Amino acid sequence: MEINESTIKDCKLKVHNVEKEIAKGIIGQENIIRQVLLGVLTGGNILLEGVPGLGKTQLVKTLAKVMDLSFSRIQFTPDLMPADVVGTNMYVEDNHGKGHFEYQKGPVFANLLLADEINRATPKTQSAMLEAMQEMTVTVGNNTYELPQPFMVLATQNPIEMEGTYPLPEAQLDRFMFKVLVEFPNLDELSRIMDLTVDCIGNEPEKIISSSDILNMRKIINDIPVAKYVKEYALRLVVATHSELPDAPEIARKYLKYGASPRAAQAILKSAKANALLEGRYNVSFDDINYVALPCLRHRIFLNFEAISDGINNDEFIKMLINEIKA
After folding, report:
1. Is the pLDDT assigned to residue 39 strictly greater than 80?
2. CA distance 117 to 62
């Protein structure tokens, strides 16, 4: 698709209007809204982590309304089974008493799937999500079914220190483009939340764009160029997370147990392109790479005991790495 000044301005205006409309139902959290929109525009799955009651579920429901997307919600619990997610073959009889098996679709068949408290389900059920999140298909028996487009998973999870949670498998974590941390609001934001939810002061969000607009923007984002040296910088960030490589930085050798996969590089470059579009630019900058590096990498690296004993968490390590790998 041809990219020109008019195309860039039109996309930027539409997405900024979406941000404003979402802000009617979600107070504060501008940075989180932006990162979730980057996921929608690139087809990446998003993992939202925070304690209960911070509006994670409300954000996803508001997003579906503003973008006019079909919406489905699965409440993940320890007794949830894979068939509850993807559907199953049911035995049915016709008017003549003849029986046959018919596939009944599960709630995964939607544009926007809210996997609520995803880390409260068992690993067996988590595995049912892997194909949908990566290939955007569902296989039941001998048949494979395409999921509607656009499709993405927006999952919420409670911190793993909380009661009744299971750590997500590394293979599933890697299928999330971003891990976004939802923090507690400040005093002013909390007051505005009370006005909206308790006193019912505010307007209902309205539809701004449609699924066809999202698919068109994805084509535009794919065509945004990335300069060779900017691309190399993104790749160097990912390679630097592998302490076993001979040119790994000293902090990686000291603090890292496992590094990020090639999916991390794909996620950084795709989301950096989308961020450039939302900033009204034709090309990707170093600032775009640095902005998306944190949510792209924080769930894909695993620190060793020495990092934990030194009080270094994933976000702090990534910031150290960005300072180490100069643009």
Report:
1. yes
2. 18
Residues shown for the chain: 327
| pLDDT tens figures, 124-149 | 888 788 888 888 888 887 888 899 88
Q: Give the C-alpha separation, 298 to 301, whole Å.
A: 6
Average pLDDT estimate for 108-123: 86
Q: Identify the three-state secondary structure at position 311.
A: coil
Tokens at 206, concatenated: 């309205």
| HSE-up (13 A, CA, CB side) for residue 151 | 18
Greatest Cα pair distance, the chain, in angstroms, is 74
Asked if the peptide bond before residue 225 counts as cis, ω within 30 degrees of 0, the response is: no
The pTM assigned to this predicted structure is 0.85
pLDDT of residue 236: 92
The CA distance from 87 to 89, in Å, is 7
What burial letters (b/e) apply to 166-198, b meaning 16+ CB within 10 Å?
A: bebeeebebbbbbbbbbeebeeeeeeebeebee
Per the prediction, the chain carries an average pLDDT of 84
Closest CA to 240 of 318, 309, 327: 318
- State how far the Cα of 316 lies from the Cα of 255, in Å rounded to an integer: 11
CA atoms within 13 Å, Cβ hemisphere of 177: 26
